[in-house]
Design goal:
With 80 residues, this protein is an alpha+beta fold. The chain has two helices and three strands. The chain has a three-stranded mixed sheet with strand order 1-2-3, covered by helices on one side. A hairpin with a 2-residue loop joins strand 1 and strand 2. The chain is globular, with a radius of gyration of 13 Å.
């Protein structure tokens, strides 16, 4: 991968993280970019309803998704 490609990938990852962190109920996010797919793990605020926060994250992700990508959203746990 070229340095330019890596830079664009890093910028896109950061944009995704910033957009997901804006979702009410999200207090942390981890993004993994894989060929043809993006995986997003979120940490939820204690007061957030898991189903409603994940639904809002999926809605926000739709605006960021490229046509040929699959996205997966899940909840990160602090458990080992």
């Amino acid at each position: 991968m070229s340095t330019e490609g890596h830079g664009a990938s890093a910028r896109r990852k950061r944009r995704i993280e910033e957009a997901i962190l804006e979702v009410e109920g999200v207090v942390g996010v981890q993004v993994w970019q894989l060929p043809g797919r993006v995986e997003v793990g979120v940490r939820l605020s204690p007061s957030g309803s898991t189903s409603s926060v994940v639904a809002r994250v999926r809605e926000a992700a739709e605006t960021l998704r490229e046509d040929d990508e699959a996205w997966d959203v899940g909840v990160l746990s602090d458990a080992p």
